[in-house]
């Protein structure tokens, strides 16, 4: 029962941050699901399954507000469709330690980019 309660709380926090900031799946759910005892592969897969719901609801709400650039979304979605297939195949070949290391390095790289290299929006 505790596992379900914590999973509920993780989902709520990730959805709030995801819909607000565009983050949540990897940054919140993967480490939290690992803390609940899931393997790295299970944490990633479970996070992606939850993100389907978060992305669907958030996308509808953002579309209603006119905050989706459909050309960019379509091009990125087409590339994502293909890349997701190959990403899941690659994930099967990596150890949990390799996945954790890649995940951590990715988060650090994104953080450095956001702090030092991304220009602030003017509007």
Could you please describe the fold and organization of this structure?
This protein has 123 residues and is mostly helical. It has one domain (2-117). Helix content is 83%, strand content 0%. The protein has 5 helices and no strands. Helix 2 (25-35) packs antiparallel against helix 3. It is globular. The mean pLDDT is 89.
Produce the secondary structure layout:
Blueprint: H1 2-21, H2 25-35, H3 40-64, H4 70-93, H5 96-117
Which features would summarize this protein structure in a list?
mainly alpha; 123 residues; 0% strand; 5 helices
Mean of the pLDDT scores?
89
Oligomeric category: single chain
| Structural domains: how many | 1
Task: Encode the helix/strand succession as letters.
Answer: HHHHH
Question: What helical percentage do the residues reach?
Answer: over 70%
Would you count the extended β strands for me?
0
Give the uncertain stretches in residue-range form: none
- Beta percentage is under 5%
SSE-based structural type: mainly alpha
DSSP helical segment count? 5
Distance between the termini: 46 Å
- How big is the Rg? 16 Å
Overall geometry comes to globular
Biggest sheet, open or closed, and with what strands and sense? none
């Amino acid at each position: 029962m505790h596992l379900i309660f914590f999973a509920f709380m993780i989902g709520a926090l990730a959805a709030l941050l995801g819909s607000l900031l565009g983050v949540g799946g990897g940054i919140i759910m993967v480490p939290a699901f690992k803390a609940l005892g899931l393997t790295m592969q299970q944490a990633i897969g479970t996070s992606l399954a939850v993100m389907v719901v978060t992305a669907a609801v958030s996308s509808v709400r953002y579309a209603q507000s006119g905050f989706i650039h459909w050309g960019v979304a379509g091009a990125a979605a087409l590339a994502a469709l293909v890349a997701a297939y190959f990403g899941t195949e690659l994930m099967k070949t990596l150890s949990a330690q390799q996945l954790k290391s890649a995940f951590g390095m990715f988060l650090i790289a994104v953080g450095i980019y956001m702090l030092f290299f991304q220009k602030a929006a003017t509007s």
